[in-house]
Amino acid sequence: MNKLIIASESIIVENEDILIEEITKDVNLYLKGKVNCGIKKINKKGTINVYLEKESDSLIEFFLKLENNQNKIYFHNEEKTKLNVHFSATFSGENHLEIKNELKHSNIKNDLKIRLVEKEGTINVLAVGDIKEKTKEINYLEDIKALTTNNERIKIMPDLLVKSKEVIANHNTTISDISKKELFYLKSKGLSEAKATEMIKKGFLKGILKNKELGGEENES
Amino acid sequence: MLTIKDLTVKVSNKTILENFNLEIKEGEIHALMGKNGAGKSTISKIILRDEAYTITKGTITYKNQDLLKMNTTEVARLGFYLASQNPIEIDGITNAELIRCALHEQGKKELNILELNNKLKKYCEKLDIPTSFIHRSINYNMSGGEKKKMELLYIWMLEPKFIILDELDSGLDVDSLKLVANSLLEYHKQFKPSLLIITHQPNLLNSLKPHKVHILENQEITQTGDFSLAQKIFENGFSRASLMINGGKNE
After folding, report:
1. What is the dotted CATH code of the domain comprising B2-245?
2. What stretches of B12-139 adopt beta strand conformation (E)?
3. What pLDDT score was predicted for residue A220?
4. Which of A166, B3, B82, B197 gives A136 a disulfide partner, CB atoms 3.0 to 4.6 angstroms apart?
5. Is residue A73 part of a domain?
6. What pTM does this model have?
7. ipTM
8. Which domain holds residue A194?
9. How far apart are CA B18 and CA B8, in angstroms?
10. Nearest C-alpha of chain B: how many angstroms from A185?
């Protein structure tokens, strides 16, 4: 797997597995074919545009530590594309995240999973799914889950705009405290409350990642 | 020795156990039986100090230590293990990670990754568990039977001194049941733990031959006997009259 630090405006990846150690500025990421892309660190304030070329089937995974971040991540699919996005992050400080899928073409399957864990901070998430007119065979799923100790610190705003008839679009948001059943299970194996909580949070973030190397440790952003 | 005396327990202001008494000596095997909803699983969670339950009266002691003054972690570190009826799934934490962490947190002998992996593989083979499960998330996407066998793997790895098996035998096919029973027998022979078996089925008890069998009914233990009491229940059901005729003893 290639490991990269991206400081350029554009990068093209074709049929490759890559691990992006850091994105330092606004970037346009062009994905072609079958691409598995892991991202460990992004700039605190900036925009990432991901372009999926025709007939591509790609996976993008983020494993981040957000701290006073303001980021926009936009996905653009060409025709006959499949995109899985797994976005895992802890957040502290004040954060704003906008994730937008603008779908103008047909035959697209996008599956977006976001997992957030609070670490004494707030986050506002705007999840936009904009499915344009005349598109066909669109399957669009947003699944956002957040673990927090204070529900007032997290705000998730779904914005699904569907103008086509041949679409399945789904948005699911869950904001919850740590499961008492999970805590009891781990404590009944002798783990302290603090250790059990830490493991559950880590597992919550790692659970959606295919690339386990990426989920090894939290990464600074 | 575990001693439960005059225990009364409430959940959401509803009394679910009243004046419950139980005594299990070191190395003894006890079975707790009763109809569905009698509160058998509640006992296991209370011993492990599940915070969902409020104790309004009574005591639970183990080797002269007051379990009611302890939390779940402390009870587990005394050597208690609960193999639960429906082990929950936790995605993102592997079995290897949890076992390694539990061994460390319980202050047991530290194993390096290689030693741990070898030990896990050895027990996986013994229990007919695919070794790939070691690095799979806790109980994630496993069948009911596989989850039960994983509980047994945890027992062999963590070496508890007091084991509560809450319907460990449900959901197991005939071969797995035999394997689990033999493995428990072997564990008992080697480590001499106390065992509290909560069950509806005869198979596990036929193999483990409990020293005492208790019947939980109407929030308390109404009958205690030897293994023959369990055999009578399997034959005649829980009808009290039938048990009395057949020689079940009230204690």
Report:
1. 3.40.50.300
2. 14-24, 29-33, 54-62, 65-66, 80-83, 90-94, 137-138
3. 40
4. A166
5. yes
6. 0.89
7. 0.92
8. 2-216
9. 4
10. 8
